Amino acid sequence: MAAVCRRWGENTCRVHYPQVTSPILATSGSALKKLVGSICALATPFRGDALDLDAFARLIDYQLDGGTQALVVAGSTGEAHALEQTEFDRLLAFALERANGRVPVLAGTGTANTRKTITATRRAQSIGADAALVVTPYYVRPTQQGLHQHFAAVADEGRLPVVLYNVPSRTGCDLLPETVAQLAAHEGIVGIKEARSEAERVAALVTLKNPHFSVLSGDDPTCARAMLDGADGVISVAANVAPAALRDVCDAAIAGDTAHALARDARLADLYTLLGVEPNPIPVKWCLHELGFGAAEPRLPLLPLGQVHHAKARGVLHALQLSAIQAAHSSAA
């Protein structure tokens, strides 16, 4: 294996599999290039009732040092729906400034309404986002034709490349592969984050990949298998806590090194389980607090991780040798 610099601008050199030559592979026809590999759905640190931008800066640095290949700001892990508009703007602008072109920055802009989603996407574009992660409209349960028209309208009018996001357990609707097939042909739609974990769903979606359309897992526990089966990468919650380990899983899986990918993935199994013991982002925020990245408390109606899980969570972090992160990053500006 050769050591090669991965670049979206500049990034840290890492030893990696020769089959993967860049965090972003083929040009899509816009400024954004094809998304692959380990993409972190960033948590949003708070201090009291305000954004903790010092902790956010250190979290971004931790991701970049660990080889994370793109960042998502204000997704569901980032408590998007608990953010004021001014906070969303500040958070996105801050992430873009901190990343400084080294990796793409995606903004979560999905709402339950098409017009509002277009407005939010245009706002993210005006701040400088590289792409929009757009969840299926929640609560209103649109038909497949409604979903098609919704995403096409956002791609046509939102002024940013769109990554579809399907997470039926949270939204109450399922973006089916047949509908994705129609949307994948749209030049403004550059990928899908698929949170359904069934092998049949992954198999149906990977046939839709093209030079500008990425298929990304949205389920950490099954992401290695999804990539071994042809997915391009993962938008990960666990990467907040263990970015270098997630990067290793992605590199091996994308390279087709099944044994190495599954072995590395197995080391993260307890972390995946921990991050699901209460609704996301409750456990990941507690873990980040333990590692020195902001407070453990999400915003209401979410509560901090229950005391019953604390000892087990500390054991998971200790097993992954993550307890010294705070000291290593305490001086980051």
What does this protein look like?
This protein is of the alpha/beta class. It has helices at residues 53-65, 85-99, 114-127, 144-157, 168-171, 177-184, 199-206, 223-228, 243-254, 258-267, 269-274, 282-290, 310-319, 325-329, and strands at residues 2-5, 13-16, 24-27, 33-35, 37-41, 46-47, 50-51, 70-73, 105-108, 131-135, 162-166, 189-194, 214-217, 233-236. The protein has an 8-stranded parallel beta barrel with strand order 5-8-9-10-11-12-13-14, surrounded by 6 helices. A two-stranded antiparallel sheet has the order 1-2. It has a two-stranded antiparallel sheet with strand order 3-4. Helix 1 (53-65) packs parallel to helix 2, helix 3 (114-127) runs parallel beside helix 4 and helix 9 packs antiparallel against helix 10. The longest helix has 15 residues, at 85-99. It starts with a strand and ends with a helix.
